[in-house]
Every structure is written in C-alpha cells, then in structure tokens.
C-alpha cells in the first residue's frame, strides 16, 4: 500500500471523530500529479478527468500546476471554468454529447472534442464548426483492467481512418487519435498494443495529407487497492518506450494523458464503525456504517476492491474470512471480493474500520438518503502543509 500523508493517516486513525466520514487531502493529490508529470519527463500534457473528483479546491490546485481538464457535461464545463481553467485547456471527451451540450461547451469557449462515430462528427460539424476533434478507437484487449471499456466506447480500428477523413471533410480539425485501455489497468503493456493501432491508423491517413498531431493515451493508470499495481514510473517507462517505437522522432505526435484515479484515489480515506457482527450458516457478516450507497463506493460493483483495515486490532491478530456490508437493507450493499476479506476474530460492534484509497469517484456517487442513511460527510483539506491537523 502507498504510504498515506501524515494528515491523511491522522484523519484515518482519529478515534474522537464520529463515523462515518471521508477525508480527502488535496495536497496528496497534487503530489500524485507532480509525480506523474515527473515520471513522464514532461513529455505528456496531463488532462485531469474531472469526473474522478470535481472538488473546486482540487481543480483549482491542479489548474495552477498546469493541468488541463477533461470534462463530459455542461456542469463539468462550469466547474472547470469556475476553478480558473482557461477554456482552451478544457477538452470535452463525451462521445455521446448531444447538440445542446456541445453548443453550451462551444459557447463557453471549448474547442476540443472527441468522436467515435459518424453521427458524432456530423453533430460536431453542425454545432461546433471548425472545432478540433480526437477520433477515439476501441482497445479490444481488456486483459489487466479492473473495469474494461470495450464495446461501449470507440470505433473499430478499421473504421478510424475513415472517420477521421469524414471529420476533416465536414470542416473539423483532426486533433489526433485517442483510446482507453480500461480503468484501473494493471498491465503497462496494454498501451503498447494501443499505440501500435494508432500507428497503423496514422499510416492510413498519410496518403490523404492528414497528420496526426496528438496521441491521447487516455486514462487507466491505477490507484492503490487490494491488488498491488506497478508504480507510475513503470507505466511511464513502458508507455514512452511504446510511443518511441511506433512513432520515431522527430515527427512524433504530442502526447496527452487523462488520469483520474491515479491522481486522487490514494488521497482519500473513509472511516467507518462496525454496526454488527453476524454469524450465519454461510459465513460471518460484518456490517459497517459506511457502504456502497451512503459512502459512494460503487466502484466496488465494477471490480474495484478496496483495502480495509481494523486499526484497533494488532496486525498479527487472529482473523477469519468475512463478508463486509454497508448499513442499508439492500442486498447490493455488500462488498464484492475475489478473495474473502478477513477481519479479527475479536472484532465487535463499535470497532473502527478504515477503507483506504476512496478519493476517486466516491464523492459524487452517493445516493442521497437511501434507506434513510445520508451521504457520508466529505472533509476536504485544501492546505498543503504537512503539519496541518485534521479539522472537521
């Protein structure tokens, strides 16, 4: 597990605070951003995915560090602008955006969009004439990703060049090619496969006098969950080497990266208490006061397994396999796990549990008041000094 910042660790282990609550350290997210930029040796423009966590303090901090912002809706356009991001540094990557959404973005000064279908390029040509467009192709290999994206997003490689020509013929500017290798991608070599596809598409476009100016490498860089992932430096080395192999310099496209959870996942932690420990014929259930609904842990339904610890018990305490649940009466409010969670045999109601790496996607995916349990409070630290004490 990545070592949390002193503030985040203190927030996680503070026994005085009533549970449940989530603490998020903006400084930790900014540090992750800086590490990512350094790992890619400043060869890649970072375009943070606002959907991962849209806190204004975070977006402002990242914008001030030089990050562009990736948005998908009018509300996210407004959030990006409110955080001080110039419209030319905002990219709308929603390939299903309708005419109203596109018109709003264009009115705010956004000029960069993404398309993966003829219908989308025609919509852009009609609503945003002259706009720049990335053509997104599908990455068919899903191995290594906790959440594969194949099927819903991206045109087939065989259609990408034709779609790019269609876009240019409609008066749009081809900004480049984009793809996504799957969310929480554990296999750094998947970018090699995708980059090879981009190179083949680029060669098909050259006879038509069209240059691919950018390669949008997409998202997929992981956070730290139950399954160990390589460090970001390993990903950067593999990705940059793949680009150098398939796009030799000096005519190499500029690179764009759209991280989400790699920036914010490890900067958040959810602190919860045990409500009940129930032994059934099929096993032991540990019910927490923070679950999938009220704590926004819906990523778990998509294959993300959070690391959970019990700070009131020694690391070498005797444990047993358990099923972790949230507080609601809904059967889906249960933590799915490829291998069973383990909890101390001595665990009792009132003991604390810490759910690590909850900084991504949780703050905006809670269900308001479901089953009478309000969303877990979100405490965001805007300061970056390491000696700041949690103040909830």
TrEMBL record:
The keyword Transcription does not apply. Transmembrane segments: none annotated. Residues 34-265 form the Orn/DAP/Arg decarboxylase 2 N-terminal domain. Its cofactor is pyridoxal 5'-phosphate. InterPro entries: Ala_racemase/Decarboxylase_C (IPR009006), De-COase2_CS (IPR022657), De-COase2_N (IPR022644), Orn/DAP/Arg_de-COase (IPR000183), Orn_de-COase (IPR002433), PLP-binding_barrel (IPR029066). Keywords: Pyridoxal phosphate. Signal peptide: none annotated. It comes from the Bacteria. Pfam families: Orn_Arg_deC_N. The keyword Membrane does not apply. Gene3D superfamilies: Alanine racemase (3.20.20.10), Lyase, Ornithine Decarboxylase, Chain A, domain 1 (2.40.37.10). This is Type III PLP-dependent enzyme. It comes from Streptomyces ziwulingensis.
């Amino acid at each position: 597990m990545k070592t949390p910042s002193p503030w985040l660790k203190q927030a996680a282990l503070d026994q005085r605070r009533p549970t449940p609550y989530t603490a998020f350290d903006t400084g930790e997210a900014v540090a992750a951003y800086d590490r990512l930029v350094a790992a890619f040796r400043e060869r890649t423009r970072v375009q943070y995915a606002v959907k991962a966590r849209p806190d204004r303090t975070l977006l402002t901090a990242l914008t001030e560090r030089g990050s562009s912002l990736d948005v998908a809706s009018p509300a996210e356009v407004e959030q990006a602008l409110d955080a001080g991001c110039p419209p030319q540094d905002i990219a709308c990557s929603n390939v299903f955006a309708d005419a109203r959404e596109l018109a709003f973005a264009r009115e705010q000064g956004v000029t960069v969009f993404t398309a993966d279908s003829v219908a989308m390029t025609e919509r852009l040509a009609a609503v945003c004439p002259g706009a720049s467009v990335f053509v997104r192709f599908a990455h068919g290999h899903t191995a290594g990703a906790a959440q594969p994206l194949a099927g819903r997003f991206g045109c087939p490689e065989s259609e990408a060049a034709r779609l790019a020509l269609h876009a240019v013929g409609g008066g749009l500017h081809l900004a480049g090619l984009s793809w996504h290798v799957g969310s929480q991608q554990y296999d750094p070599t998947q970018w090699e496969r995708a980059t090879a596809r981009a190179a083949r598409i680029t060669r098909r476009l050259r006879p038509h006098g069209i240059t691919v100016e950018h390669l949008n490498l997409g998202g997929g860089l992981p956070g730290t969950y139950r399954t160990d992932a390589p460090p970001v430096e390993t990903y950067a080395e593999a990705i940059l080497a793949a680009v150098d192999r398939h796009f030799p310099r000096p005519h190499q496209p500029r690179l764009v990266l759209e991280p989400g959870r790699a920036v914010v996942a490890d900067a958040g932690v959810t602190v919860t208490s045990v409500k009940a420990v129930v032994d059934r014929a099929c096993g032991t259930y540990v019910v927490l006061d923070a679950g999938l609904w009220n704590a926004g842990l819906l990523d778990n339904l998509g294959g993300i397994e959070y690391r959970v610890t019990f700070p009131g018990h020694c690391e070498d305490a005797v444990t047993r396999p358990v099923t972790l649940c949230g507080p609601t009466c809904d059967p889906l409010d249960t933590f799915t796990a490829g291998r069973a969670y383990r909890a101390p045999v001595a665990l009792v109601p009132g003991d604390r549990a810490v759910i690590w790496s909850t900084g991504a996607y949780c703050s905006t995916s809670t269900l308001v008041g479901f089953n009478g349990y309000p969303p877990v409070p979100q405490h965001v630290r805007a300061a970056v000094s390491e000696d700041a004490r949690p103040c909830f």
